[in-house]
Specification:
The protein is an alpha+beta fold. It contains six helices and four strands; from the N terminus they run H-E-E-H-E-E-H-H-H-H. It folds into two domains: 74 residues, no CATH class; 63 residues, no CATH class. Helices cover 43% and strands 18% of the residues.
Length: 145
């Protein structure tokens, strides 16, 4: 129970959770997030979470028949893990280099994720590449761009 309370307090302090009206709720819009079956957060991240992304308000002015209309847009901050955007490209590179079907590479990566616990998909793909004894330089460069 102490660990759960400490994690809750950490998430409140870093802005991931909001406590208002005697409720605790997410302060980040999670409506477009897909969570894969079996995913678990790592205790290391829960013990010292990064600061939650802030929503920025951008004002846009549109003139319609000499009237000024102000439209407010919310812009989400970029993903905390930039390597996530390169997952498809890494998958294609590994499948081509290993001579395997994309589905087979993905199946092996998902199997590694189930075995290892909280591991990102791109890391599981890199582990599959390493298992296939592929040179890692190209894949690491892809992730870091």
């Amino acid at each position: 129970m102490e660990v759960a309370l400490r994690i809750r307090d950490n998430l409140i302090q870093t802005g991931w959770l909001d406590t208002s009206d005697e409720m605790v709720q997410s302060s980040v819009d999670l409506s477009g997030v897909e969570v894969p079956f079996g995913w678990l957060p790592s205790m290391r991240i829960l013990e010292s979470p990064p600061t939650a992304p802030k929503r920025e308000v951008v004002e846009e002015v549109t003139i319609v028949e000499l009237e000024e209309v102000v439209v407010k847009k919310t812009v989400e901050s970029p993903s905390i893990d930039p390597a996530v955007t390169h997952t498809t490209k890494i998958l294609d590179q590994i499948a081509k280099a290993a001579g395997l079907d994309r589905k087979e590479v993905m199946r092996r990566a998902q199997r590694k994720r189930r075995a290892l616990g909280p591991v990102t998909l791109w890391m599981a793909l890199l582990l599959v590449a390493r298992e296939q004894q592929l040179p890692m330089g190209e894949f690491v460069r892809t992730i870091s761009t």
